[in-house]
Amino acid sequence: MQNDMTKGSPLRLIVFFTIPVLLGNIFQNVYNLMDSIIVGRFLGVNALAAVGATGTLTFLVFGWITGMTGGFGILLAQSFGAGDEKRLRHYTVMSLYLCVAMAVLMTAGLLLANRGILKLMNTPDTILDDTAGYIGIIYAGLPVTIAYNMLSSVSRSLGDSRTPLIFLIISSVLNIILDIVLITVIPLGVRGAAYATVIAQVVSAVACFFYVKKKYEILKIRKGEWGFSWGSAGRLLMMGLPMGLQFSITAIGTMMVQAAVNLLGATYIAAFSAGGKICNIVTLLFPSLGVTLATYVGQNMGAGKIKRIRQGVRITQVITIIAGIVCGLAVFIWGGTASRLFVADPTGEIKAICDEYFHATAWCYPFLGSIFIYRNTLQGMGDGLVPMLGGVFELAARGIMVTVLAAPLGFLGISLCDPGAWISALIPLVPVYIMRMKKITKTYSSAETE
């Protein structure tokens, strides 16, 4: 179902587009949680630490893929908003070519560098083999991950956030079933969890492909439209690369933090992994709103409706502040208790570590949510460089803070890296958004229609 976001109530459009995206993110995180819960409960703390130690790596890799395909989707959304169907199909074809190249290069490169990267991250020898085995299987499945993300990006660029949700639900349920089978029935250890994830992604990607091919007549490629254009490839990469780098730069900062946590041992690794997953769950609304804004802004930018962009940003900011306060209070009170879902904790040590993490970070959730607002709005407007600069500020903050605070404050100092990074990321984003809106408003004011 296509959805023109250039007409109608901005609040209604944003809310109804966000709901399927949020549900999709919830299901995606549910099966990630099930990986950790099943591994922790059936295989123990070291196995959970092995999976947890890959968290920043998977964030790096999946973030790059999400950024690249999301960047391609911005140009698709702008083409759709402008009513240019031929350009929309052309960018779809070019995105396909670029995704194939990305799949080959990433899979081969990461498999070759697997153990070397883990050793650079101070991964303890006691969990190195399990960690390398788990993440290696995830790397082997990257072509499928790229395919699903690109198909989802295409659907969302047309205003359809429901289709990716349907197939993600199917994938999530299948992943949970396979987790249980490949860990408890067929004892494959942590590798079983990785196989479950990849198989579930295969099913989701294949189903999504056939649905998109059947339902979107506007995307059916005509004869003569399969040609390759270096100019179009360059334009797609100018959007995709900065967005991919933005995620990667952020991930490098979290890898630096993870390396500091790894020095504290398996218990801290397991607790930090559990805390991170809980944080991701309770703040899922923020990236969901970001995805919505990228499409909403992209379509309205293509249509030249700048006033609607400003309205959408204001509405989303109010939602984010309220949600940030509520979510922060929830994890401040119950975050440590929720960690017991992941692993047996008879001594209460893991709960105490998670409590320390949440008490240091929960107050800053409104700032975290605001990052997605201004970053994705700028991306929807066609600016990929400034959002990447926000990632550079975030990386610098994490690097400085983990270096300065880890030794004197221990785990508390490591935990404070998140608030410092979130606030720092906003330093370039907010002022540039204000300046860009002023400039674009002057440019489009004479042509804008309501």
TrEMBL record:
Keywords: Antiport, Cell membrane, Ion transport, Membrane, Transmembrane, Transmembrane helix, Transport. It comes from Fusicatenibacter faecihominis. InterPro entries: MATE_fam, MATE_MdtK, MdtK-like. One of its GO terms (cellular component) is plasma membrane. Belongs to the multi antimicrobial extrusion (MATE) (TC 2.A.66.1) family. The keyword Lipoprotein does not apply. One of its GO terms (molecular function) is xenobiotic transmembrane transporter activity. Multidrug efflux pump. The chain crosses the membrane at residues 12-31, 43-76, 88-112, 132-151, 163-186, 192-212, 269-297, 318-337, 357-374, 395-414, 420-436. This is Probable multidrug resistance protein NorM. The keyword Transmembrane applies. It comes from the Bacteria. It is a multi-pass membrane protein. One of its GO terms (biological process) is monoatomic ion transport. Pfam families: MatE (PF01554). It is found in: Cell membrane.
